[in-house]
Every structure is written in structure tokens, then in C-alpha cells.
Design goal:
Layout (H helix, E strand, L loop, with lengths): L1 H10 L19 H6 L27 H4 L9 E6 L5 H9 L6 H11 L1 H6 L3 E4 L4 H7 L3 H13 L8 E3 L12 H7 L3 E3 L9 E9 L3 H12 L4 E9 L3
Parallel strand pairs: 1-6, 2-5, 5-6
Antiparallel strand pairs: 3-4
Helix pairs in contact: 5-8
Length: 239
């Protein structure tokens, strides 16, 4: 296999998934593009993962919302990068333009961003499901591809069928604020509760904007008997 990989790399050398520059190793991004990505690192809220602009006095600090114990279905939330002008083209090409080869690199980022979650313990990986009409149109679920790669890296099982998106909705990008919450209200159902009952689940998606979609899916799983749900995304819109 190593010999074949070497032969293939001669004719199809690895390229940067953002700018297309030929790479000496299959690292996903060239140094220039890598340096443009704004990775989320400490300090951040220890519960929701919201990064702090300035370093707090304690590495265990919570953000204002978490200090006020604003209700959330998540045990922990984590994201790998800021959703901004540097990461947005990479994620949009993965989601809408068939750049499924990006999944492996993005899943590596998920794995690193999820270290706090892995330490707390996880039994099952679940990707945010697409409605079947959107899946047929797009031909793949970007969250499912990320979950598959992450499952290989962590050795954790991945379930694609326990949760379904039974209601077709308009894209969340068309809404803001409370309209996003209304748009996804009640759209998820647990078809196989026996698969998630008593399990510690990490829910996977590409981007967290307001978190409405992730929260609605998490609530459905918790109602069906999941022990806990964590949210893990490649990128998030930071306040």
C-alpha cells in the first residue's frame, strides 16, 4: 500500500485544499493558508467554548451566559475555528461544491477541538441529519462525512439513522435570531431510541451560527433518553 501511495503521489500530488498549491506532504493546507485560519484556542468558556477576547485570570472561567446558567441542552460545546473570511470559502466549497476531499482535514481539526469532550467520555458520534430531499439534491451530508472521518480517528461508533430530519425547512442562512429557532422547531425525531438511550453523544455539524439547529437536535435526543449531548463543529460564529 505504501508503494502504491508513493506512485499515486507522483502523478496526483497532494494539494492545499484551499489554494491548490502542491504540498510535499498530505497536510491539507499549505503554510500560508494554514496561517490565515483563526483557530480557537484557550482561553475560552469551559462550558460553551466561546473564546474570550482577553485572557481571563483563570483557565476555568465561564462566559456571562454560562455563569447565568442560561438553559442549554449541551454538556459541552466546542469548535475548531472562527467562521470568518478565512475559513468560510473552505467550508462552503466542502458543503455545496463537492469538495468532499476536505472532510479528512476538517475532521482532524474536529478531533483536536474535541479534546475536552473526549476526556469527559463519549459513547456515540451522531451527525446532524439532512432532510431526504436536500440529501438527494446535494448527494451527500457534509456532517455525515465529517462524522465518518472522526469515527475512524477516535475509534468511536457513528450512527446515521437513529435521528431523522422529518420536516423540510428553508435554509437557516435565510433567517436570523429568533426566526432561526422557529425555522427548526420540532424538525428532528428519534427513529431508533434504543440506539441512543443512556449514551453520551457528540453531535457533529460543520458550522455553528446561533446553535439553533444543534440545540433542537440535542433536545430530541435527550427527550429520547440520551444521557448527555455535546456539540462539536468545525467552525462557529464568535460573538
Amino acid at each position: 500500500m505504501s508503494l502504491w501511495a508513493d506512485i499515486i503521489s507522483v502523478f496526483l500530488p497532494p494539494r492545499c485544499i484551499k489554494c491548490g498549491t502542491i504540498l510535499s506532504q498530505d497536510d491539507g493546507l499549505c503554510p500560508d493558508c494554514f496561517n490565515e485560519i483563526n483557530f480557537i484556542s484557550a482561553p475560552y468558556c469551559q462550558k460553551c467554548g466561546q473564546p474570550f477576547e482577553a485572557a481571563p485570570s483563570s483557565s476555568k472561567m465561564l462566559c456571562v451566559s454560562c455563569l447565568q446558567k442560561v438553559k442549554t441542552p449541551f454538556r459541552l460545546s466546542r469548535s475548531a475555528v472562527h467562521y470568518d473570511d478565512s475559513s468560510k470559502p473552505l467550508l462552503l466549497s466542502f458543503k455545496f461544491h463537492d469538495r468532499t476531499d476536505n472532510a479528512k482535514t476538517l475532521a482532524k481539526w474536529l478531533n483536536l477541538a474535541g479534546q475536552d469532550i473526549w476526556k469527559e467520555g463519549v459513547d456515540l458520534i451522531v451527525p446532524i441529519p439532512l432532510h431526504y430531499t436536500r440529501l438527494m439534491k446535494r448527494r451527500y451530508n457534509q456532517s455525515g462525512l465529517l462524522a465518518a472521518e472522526l469515527g475512524k480517528m477516535t475509534g468511536l461508533p457513528v450512527d446515521y439513522t437513529a435521528v431523522a430530519r422529518h420536516k423540510k425547512t428553508r435554509p437557516q442562512v435565510e433567517f436570523s435570531g429568533h426566526e432561526r429557532i422557529k425555522n427548526v422547531k420540532g424538525v428532528f425525531s428519534v427513529k431508533h431510541p434504543e440506539k441512543i438511550k443512556g449514551k453520551r453523544i457528540v453531535l457533529i455539524d460543520d458550522v455553528m451560527t446561533t446553535g439553533s439547529t444543534l440545540k433542537e437536535c440535542a433536545l430530541a435526543m435527550l427527550s429520547a433518553g440520551a444521557k448527555s449531548v455535546d456539540a462539536l463543529t468545525v467552525a462557529r460564529v464568535c460573538k
